[in-house]
Design brief:
Number of strands: 0
Largest sheet: none
Number of domains: 1
Distance between the termini: 34 Å
Radius of gyration: 15 Å
Shape: flat
Number of helices: 6
Helix content: over 70%
Mean pLDDT: 89
């Protein structure tokens, strides 16, 4: 990261993302797969809320580290259709949006992604 956002800027950006997820929740009733999209939007909204709460009490770098921990704790669901794991896809999407917002170096995100276990392995180790 070249320029670290202040915690105030993080909170403002996360509130914006949270509002978008809420708009998605309101719009979901118009789709045929509304339950899948509702779960996806709720999961995103929850992650943004967690990160915003963390930003109120810690530094920007600590919020980013926390987001990376959350990201690494998620099972890898690449190749698994959205309708099978909408919550995990939503959490992943929220964290990846956050990484874009804070301009996280691609190498840090890639390293974090490599540490994630595939869903099948994750379920076996749980």
């Amino acid at each position: 990261m070249k320029d670290l956002l202040t915690t105030g800027e993080l909170i403002h950006g996360l509130k914006h993302y949270r509002r978008i997820a809420k708009q998605d929740l309101l719009a979901v009733t118009a789709t045929s797969a509304s339950e899948v999209f509702r779960q996806h939007a709720e999961a995103r909204r929850e992650v943004y809320g967690l990160l915003a709460e963390r930003a109120k009490v810690t530094s920007s770098e600590q919020v980013i580290d926390y987001a990376l921990e959350l990201y690494e704790s998620l099972p890898l669901v690449s190749g698994i259709p959205l309708e099978h794991q909408p919550q995990i896809h939503g959490q992943e999407s929220a964290l990846e949006n956050f990484f874009v917002m804070v301009n996280l170096e691609k190498v840090r995100r890639r390293d974090s992604r490599k540490r994630r276990k595939r869903l099948e392995v994750f379920l076996l180790s749980a």
